[in-house]
Amino acid sequence: MAVETPERSPSSPARGPGAGFLGYRGRERPAGGFELWSWLFMRVSGVLLLVLAVGHVLIMHVVDEGVDRVDFGFVATRWGSPFWRTWDWALLVLALIHGINGLRVVVQDYVRWPGARLAVNMLFYSIGFILFVLGTVVVFTFDPSKWPGAV
Amino acid sequence: MARTVPSGELALGCQPRNDVAKRKADIGTLYRGSPGQWSWLAHRITGIAVILFLFAHVVDTAVVGWGPEAYDRVVAVYHNWVVKLLELGLVAAVLYHAINGVKIMLFDFWPATTRYMKPLSVASTGLFLLSMAPITWIMGRSILRSAGVL
User: Fold this and answer.
1) Domain coverage including residue A91
2) CATH code, B33-147
3) Were both Cys, which of A16, A35, A85, B66 would link to B70 (CB 3.0–4.6 Å)?
4) Total structural domains in chain A?
């Protein structure tokens, strides 16, 4: 896995037909390799998260009393359906990778010293891995029948 | 390139560029950036806010595996009105990031639309504000109820 990512090439102004606002087109699309896959992943996961994350936020925080109605019984009922368990697990995985890859891009901009950059990235990757394992175990092993009378 | 530069511009220490149509009236005034620059910044800030919240949120949800007593105690934090205010900010951050993300993809996969960057930025910001209006109304009432005002 590319931890030491190369500096992005300075974006050159795109002129002529196809050039955008004021003749500039912003940051260039990566030419290939890991950065291109990362660029593509952000867009594909972004479209999926448009449904998964926005849907999750509207359901859990806005409609029908929002977070006021959320308690152990609510989760037990909701996760009684494999559909919501799958939804929440997909959201967990995609949001973690999308978010931590986003942090990697931000770190690339602001943490210049290679040792510090590696350390900061490793910290985020470790947090991501631990949360992935924790979330996956809880989503798939949660069994409310262990607490009879709670639901 | 030989070019006559008005002395005022030299005094400001800025080199005017031929390819960027900068109005002379802008020189010496407050730098306001282009809409794309501000949405880039907002995209970055909302993205960082959401991933940092996610780190905490995976842990608080995982507590459900330790039973009703533990989970209900953790979730009670979310019923506090100050936390609900932050929650409104979280919803706004997710929505902004989502709508602006669609705008970014539009520019990426259909480059001709970058000609309309300014109106599209206004439109996407408008869509965000418009969708935040009912959400703020609904969540705002919940915040006021939790604070004991309503």
Assistant:
1) 46-146
2) 1.20.1300.10
3) B66
4) 1
Establish if A28 touches chain B: CB-CB under 8 angstroms: no
pLDDT in tens, A108-140: 989 989 999 999 999 999 999 999 999 999 999
Contact by Cβ (8 Å): A19, B115: no
Question: What is the band of A50 on the pLDDT scale with cuts at 50, 70, 90?
Answer: very high
ipTM of the complex: 0.76
> Residue A52 is part of a domain; what is its CATH number?
1.20.1300
Query: Is A112 contained in some domain?
Result: yes
Contacts B59 to A, Cβ<8 Å? 131, 134
Report the residue of A43, A61, A93, A145 to disrupt the B interface, i.e. the one with the largest count of B CBs within 10 Å: A61
Rounded to whole angstroms, how far apart are CA atoms A62 and B72? 20
Whether B68 contacts A75, CB under 8 Å: no
Check CB contact of A71 with chain B, cutoff 8 Å. Answer: yes
Cα–Cα distance between A88 and A69 in angstroms, integer?
Answer: 18
Structural domain spans, chain B: 33-147
Please name the residues between 8 and 47 in chain B that touch chain A, using a CB distance below 8 Å: 19-21, 34, 36, 44, 47
Residue B65 sits at φ, ψ, to 5 deg, of -75, -10
pLDDT digit string (tens) for A65-74? 878 888 888 8
Residues of A in contact with B133 (CB under 8 A): none
Per-residue pLDDT at B23 exceeds 80: no
Q: A89-103: string of b/e by CB count within 10 Å (b at 16+)?
A: bbbbbbbbbbbbbbb
